[in-house]
Every structure is written in C-alpha cells, then in structure tokens.
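For the sake of transparency, this paper describes our internal protein records without simplification. The tokens are whole numbers drawn from a learned vocabulary of local backbone shapes. One such record is reproduced below, unchanged from the form in which we store it.

. . .
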Amino acid sequence: MIRSELIQKIADENPHLYQRDVERIVNTIFEEIIEAMARGDRVELRGFGAFSVKKREARIGRNPRTGESVQVEEKYVPFFKTGKLLRDRLNGKQE
C-alpha cells in the first residue's frame, strides 16, 4: 500500500472528512515520526511496532563490481521492530 492508497482508504471509511483533511492528517503523522527519529527518539505505536534509529559504525566495505576495498562512513539507519499484535496477525493468530 502506498501513501495515496492509505489516504483514499481512510477517506472512504470516513465520509464526514474531506480528502484534503485526511491527507493533511496522514502527512502530519508521518512528518512527526520522521522528526522524532531525526532527533534520535524512539516512536512506539502500540500493537503495530516501534521505529528507532541505529548507528552503523564506519567500516571497510567492498565494491561488488570491482572487488576493491572502500571506506564506508558511519551512518544512522532506521529500524523497525514489529509489535506483538502485528506479529500474531501476520502468523494467523488473531484474537
């Protein structure tokens, strides 16, 4: 599902809301998650999962095309850990 499909689904299920308002709500939620992660905060959505940021140390990598060693700088990467409810639903264990 892409963002526009999510917005359309929410708008369809809530006919009392204008689509532009639903779009603003969805964009605000995503923007707040992004800003929190940029600050290094953890974002937890109960039953769904938790977003966090992990630091990857600098290392020596290898160019797969040439086999040449290259220096890979340290970087921060997003990490998502599923919540128990989501994991159970994916494995067919609905409550």
